[in-house]
């Protein structure tokens, strides 16, 4: 398997772990009556994110951010693989993306500024560089 595809699979597992961490915290804080409901803000008195603690809210936002970033990263991997443009550099960039995503979660959870944003930027630039490699 190409390293870029391996990293994509691992990024999917990371996202699943983020979802599990968020789910456990949200269920403990808010209870199953709220988390298993239809989550209508009018009935609950707000969104689940707004009712959660600040750190659980950060986990929610970090998970959503990973959904957004994973779309672009998946695109990068697909164009590299289908375009037969994978190289050692594209593999390094893919691993850089994953490392940044792994570091991003605790940086966001603990509110580390400006590190969270800088870590995000590293992952984003690695993804954009992968797309650029696919075009040359």
Provide the β-strand percentage band: under 5%
Query: SSE order, as H and E?
Result: HHHHHHH
- The coarse silhouette is elongated
DSSP summary, beta strand count: 0
Rg over alpha carbons? 17 Å
Descriptive report:
- The protein is mainly α and 136 residues long.
- The radius of gyration is 17 Å and the shape is elongated.
- It starts with a helix and ends with a helix.
- The relative contact order is 0.16.
Annotation keywords:
136 residues; mainly alpha; 7 helices; 82% helix; elongated
Short recap of the structure:
With 136 residues, this protein is mostly helical. The chain has helices spanning 3-30, 32-35, 41-44, 48-51, 54-82, 88-109, 115-135.
SSE map:
Blueprint: H1 3-30, H2 32-35, H3 41-44, H4 48-51, H5 54-82, H6 88-109, H7 115-135
Helix pairs in contact: 1-5, 1-6, 5-6, 5-7, 6-7
